[in-house]
């Protein structure tokens, strides 16, 4: 049996993907006959174009978001897609242009950019209006959709009408997805969408991090509104209007029978009688949605227990002093060779190693156990597959923080051909059908923007453009999560809080399911149960110095997922953002951990957002600390989970640097991040090297910067930045073994050709230099193990591997979206290999590892190890290197790397060739300013 693709996080949602086993072609035809024509959504077509609002981009703003804008499909459309492969209108018309850039970028010129992107100008040109509608018959808002992509252009004459239209359009395009994720955010996915083991794992992963009650969700919006004054009150009005628009669409689509067909396939609606309900949305649903987004992309930190375990392993191997030195060298907290977003020598100290750490609560050896989450399993919840999903979810939630994705390339006007800044940027949010994001333009009183928003949170554009400026973000990962050791008292569910034995708060969610057409998983049920303390949810149990403790995790955004809405409101307001300083002020109101980038016709800017807690003096953010007043965040209010935060000036920030790059790399000198792996080789180097070269030459254009991004998107980081050094060791003497010599020749040819994973020609589904790619994919894990395990020993090697995975090739299951997700080469041991090999070669290394590992520091022994593992790798067949999964047959290299739009609904799409680039992406160059 071929192995199944490893899955994680959003990739795990299972809805109608399994339908083919239940629906044969004949039955599809019968069902379609009864469902097609009688019920369809009436939309008026108006040939008159919508007048564009103030647009200062001069036709030079572009964007793209695959697979397509339309993420809703009726039951008939789903059945046609499943049976015959037909696509609903605008369901995948952005997928082809997006995919084609991989082979089309070498010939790219400015006038060809919109061959691969949408024109992101405001308004709809004459002759390009596909439809207009007045949602719910309102006279104060119009939704115009364009012919090319079906993007909604929402224009309101009142603020309420504008936001009503935004909600209505969101429901038209993503109602099912929004419903799925409001249930994910509450830990109720299995009861709603089915009990597949993957669904179980997903809801467990999020519930463990954000075990909120309905009162908690409501309190978040109340608190955010109250603290923000007039803007807060406006936000609540906007949210209520947005919800009214969503619910108006539900009220129209339900009796009209043009609601998403997944409601029928999952048993919520009856295809014949139309019985059943689609529940209205409410304010707390949006907070639940925000908690999912924040957890996935904007909450850096965690992993302190894993850090402690790897430190203890290092100390056990080498002794306390030497072991600590070894651990610090692998941690690379402030590596002098790390690529930086702010490269002008600015220093922003945060979460640095204290000279004399205080309050550390390291566990006793062998005492750590993860806190159980799932209880009272029945039926299919008690199967081995279900328990395995629980283990995977637990490992993903509790391991060291490895969030990321998204990139940005921004060049100041001083280095462009036009004298205006150029930017190519966007978030990597994975690939789904429908996509997590949606495109829209919103024009109304106090709002003027176009871009992408997360479905169900699209009352404002979250990443996009205003009248004369654009903005985007990448995940930053600075540490806003700490682990506390709470001392137990009385029993396992009481703890000491400020000297008082205090009961933990138990919250739970009971879920049950039964088979449906979409998910045939047998009936089952379980209860998720979390114990909460004032220091956050319990994640582990252990002993520290013989005392029983619970390890809890506290993040600054816990109970505050709604707070960031104020910052997004500001970014959409043309009267607020008039330049880079205003942009930075808006970003300061976003408490999620992101790197924000800005470009207008005159300036560029950067700001790192997040509520960075000010820690007590002497606390090391890398490790658990005692839950005692002396080690709490400064100014911490336990009831509200607020604290004193570092001021805006202490966050990495900049205006008009010559260029900015970000691919989730280190922000600035002395600014520590939670994830491991910010060393001498990082995928950010792929952008840095290319953009630095462009800037040095001068005359940068939109197409040149897009080509730099696209070129990096096909690069194999290991091959470009590490393989030449490995070959240098091998070439230190003649290679006489024929098998090794043949492998070296193939690798050298690939490096000379650019070290890319690219097709021989567009659509060939075969890689150029396929053998060399296969060899490196097989060699990397073998060479890393042979290089480091003998010197580190099994325990330390495995412990560091839990902090930082060895590899993240495109075909490996990794990251928050699993395999076939595009994003690759973010986390791996490439810096360790690079530094170690350079040390063995006798080259200069800043911030070296504490010891030499390859061949124990001997060049000849290191070379023997590399050649031995290279021969072993070269002998492996493609079927062994790429063993197949639920998408690909064994040995299909191209398919193993390919990007799949993971089905979160009933519509399927074809695979596209691998690219490592943002999912939503903008290319912008403004020609003038207000």
What value does the Rg take, in angstroms?
27 Å
Cα-to-Cα separation, first versus last residue: 62 Å
The major β-sheet equals:
10 strands, mixed
Cα shape: globular
Strand order of the largest sheet: 3-4-5-12-13-14-15-23-24-26
Q: Which parts are unreliable, with pLDDT below 50 for 5 consecutive residues or more?
A: 1-40, 45-51
Number of helices: 25
Helix content: 25-40%
Strand content: 15-25%
The overall strand count is 30
Assign the structural class, choosing from mainly alpha, mainly beta, alpha/beta, alpha+beta, or little secondary structure: alpha+beta
Write down the overall mean pLDDT.
Answer: 93
List strands and helices in order, with pairings:
Blueprint: H1 25-35, E1 61-64, H2 75-84, H3 95-104, H4 113-116, E2 118-119, E3 129-133, E4 141-146, E5 152-156, H5 159-184, H6 189-193, H7 197-209, H8 214-227, H9 229-256, H10 262-265, H11 283-297, H12 304-318, H13 320-331, E6 347-350, E7 369-370, E8 374-379, H14 384-398, E9 407-411, E10 422-426, E11 432-433, E12 437-444, E13 447-454, E14 463-465, E15 469-475, E16 481-489, E17 491-497, E18 500-503, E19 505-513, E20 524-533, E21 536-544, E22 547-555, H15 565-571, H16 580-587, E23 594-600, E24 604-608, E25 625-626, E26 653-655, E27 659-662, E28 669-671, H17 684-697, H18 702-713, H19 717-730, H20 738-752, H21 770-803, H22 830-840, H23 859-874, H24 878-881, H25 893-897, E29 902-903, E30 921-924
Parallel strand pairs: 5-12, 6-28, 11-29, 16-25
Antiparallel strand pairs: 1-2, 1-30, 3-4, 4-5, 7-21, 8-20, 9-10, 9-27, 10-30, 12-13, 13-14, 14-15, 15-23, 16-17, 16-22, 17-18, 19-20, 20-21, 21-22, 23-24, 24-26
Helix pairs in contact: 1-2, 5-9, 5-11, 7-14, 8-9, 8-11, 12-13, 12-21, 15-16, 17-18, 19-20, 19-22, 20-21, 20-23, 21-23
């Amino acid at each position: 049996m071929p192995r199944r693709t490893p899955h994680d996080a959003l990739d795990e949602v299972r809805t109608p993907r399994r339908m083919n086993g239940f629906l044969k072609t004949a039955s599809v035809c019968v069902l379609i006959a009864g469902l097609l024509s009688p019920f369809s959504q009436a939309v008026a077509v108006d040939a008159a174009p919508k007048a564009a609002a103030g647009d200062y981009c001069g036709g030079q703003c572009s964007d793209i978001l695959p697979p397509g804008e339309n993420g809703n499909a009726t039951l008939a459309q789903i059945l046609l897609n499943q049976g015959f492969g037909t696509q609903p209108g605008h369901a995948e018309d952005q997928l082809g242009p997006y995919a084609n850039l991989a082979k089309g970028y070498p010939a790219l010129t400015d006038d060809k950019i919109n061959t691969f992107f949408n024109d992101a100008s405001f308004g709809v040109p004459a002759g390009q209006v596909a439809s207009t509608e007045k949602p719910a018959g309102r006279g104060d808002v119009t939704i115009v959709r364009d012919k090319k992509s079906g993007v909604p252009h929402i224009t309101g004459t009142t603020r309420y009408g504008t936001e009503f239209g935004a909600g209505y359009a969101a429901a038209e395009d993503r109602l099912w997805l929004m419903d799925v994720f409001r249930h994910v955010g509450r830990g109720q996915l299995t009861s709603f969408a089915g009990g597949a083991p993957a669904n179980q794992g997903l809801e467990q992963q999020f519930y463990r991090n954000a075990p909120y009650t309905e009162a908690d969700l409501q309190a978040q919006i109340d608190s955010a509104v109250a603290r923000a004054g007039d803007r807060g009150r406006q936000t609540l009005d906007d949210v209520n209007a947005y919800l009214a628009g969503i619910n108006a669409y539900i009220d129209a689509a339900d009796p009209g029978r043009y609601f998403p067909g997944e409601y029928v396939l999952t048993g919520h609606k009856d295809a014949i009688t139309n019985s059943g309900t689609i529940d209205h949305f409410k304010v707390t649903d949006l907070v639940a949605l925000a908690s999912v987004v924040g957890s996935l992309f904007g909450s850096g930190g965690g992993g302190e227990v894993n850090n402690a375990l790897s430190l203890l392993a290092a100390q056990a191997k080498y002794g306390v002093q030497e072991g600590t030195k070894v651990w610090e060298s692998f941690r690379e907290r402030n590596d002098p060779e790390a690529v930086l977003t702010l490269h002008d020598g600015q220093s922003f100290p945060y979460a640095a190693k204290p000279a004399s750490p205080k309050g550390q609560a390291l566990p006793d050896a062998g005492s750590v156990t993860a806190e159980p989450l799932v209880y009272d399993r029945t039926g299919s919840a008690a199967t081995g597959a279900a328990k395995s999903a629980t283990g995977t979810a637990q490992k993903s939630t509790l391991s060291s923080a490895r969030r990321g994705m998204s990139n940005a390339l921004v060049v100041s006007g001083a280095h462009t051909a036009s004298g205006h800044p150029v930017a190519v940027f966007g978030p990597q949010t994975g690939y789904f059908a429908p996509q997590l994001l949606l495109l829209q333009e919103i024009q109304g009183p106090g709002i003027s923007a176009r871009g992408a928003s997360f479905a169900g949170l699209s009352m404002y554009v979250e990443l996009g453009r205003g009248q004369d400026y654009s903005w985007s973000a990448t995940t930053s990962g600075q540490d806003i999560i700490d682990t506390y050791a709470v001392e137990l008292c009385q029993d396992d569910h009481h703890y000491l809080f400020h000297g008082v034995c205090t009961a933990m708060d138990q919250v739970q969610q009971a879920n049950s399911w039964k088979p449906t057409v979409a998910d045939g998983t047998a009936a089952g049920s379980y209860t998720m149960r979390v114990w909460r303390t004032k220091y956050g949810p319990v994640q582990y149990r252990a002993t520290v110095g013989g005392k029983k403790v619970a390890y809890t995790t506290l993040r600054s955004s816990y109970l505050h997922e709604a707070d960031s809405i104020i910052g997004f409101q500001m970014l959409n307001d043309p009267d607020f953002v008039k330049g880079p300083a205003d942009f930075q002020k808006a970003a300061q109101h976003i408490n999620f951990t992101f790197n924000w980038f800005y470009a207008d016709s005159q300036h560029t800017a950067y700001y790192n957002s997040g509520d960075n807690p000010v820690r007590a003096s002497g606390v090391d953010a890398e490790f658990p600390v005692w839950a005692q007043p002396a080690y709490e965040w400064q100014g911490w209010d336990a009831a509200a989970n607020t604290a004193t935060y570092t001021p805006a000036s202490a966050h990495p920030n900049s205006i008009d640097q010559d260029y900015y790059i970000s691919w989730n790399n280190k922000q600035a000198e002395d600014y520590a991040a939670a994830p491991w792996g910010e060393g001498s080789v990082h995928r950010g180097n792929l952008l840095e090297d290319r953009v630095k070269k462009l800037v040095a030459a001068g005359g940068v254009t939109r197409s040149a910067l897009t080509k730099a991004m696209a070129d990096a998107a096909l690069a194999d980081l290991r091959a470009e930045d590490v393989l030449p050094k490995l070959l240098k060791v091998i070439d230190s003497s003649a290679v006489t073994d024929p098998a090794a010599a043949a492998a070296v020749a193939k690798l050298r040819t690939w490096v000379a050709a650019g070290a890319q994973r690219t097709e021989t020609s567009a659509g060939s589904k075969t890689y150029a230099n396929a053998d060399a790619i296969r060899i490196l994919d097989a060699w990397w894990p073998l060479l890393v193990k042979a290089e480091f395990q003998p010197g580190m020993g099994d325990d330390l090697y495995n412990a560091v591997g839990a902090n930082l995975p060895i590899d993240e090739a495109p075909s490996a299951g990794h990251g928050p979206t699993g395999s076939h997700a595009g994003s690759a080469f973010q986390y791996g041991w490439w810096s360790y290999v690079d530094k170690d090999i350079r040390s063995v070669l006798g080259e200069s290394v800043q911030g070296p590892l504490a010891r030499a590992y390859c061949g124990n520091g001997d060049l000849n022994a290191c070379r023997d190890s590399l050649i031995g593992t290279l021969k072993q790798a070269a002998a492996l067949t493609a079927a062994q290197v790429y063993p197949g999964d639920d998408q690909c047959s064994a040995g299909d290299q191209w398919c193993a790397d390919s990007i799949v739009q993971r089905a979160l609904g009933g519509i399927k799409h074809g695979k596209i060739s691998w690219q490592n680039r943002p999912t939503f992406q903008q290319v912008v160059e403004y020609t003038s300013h207000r």
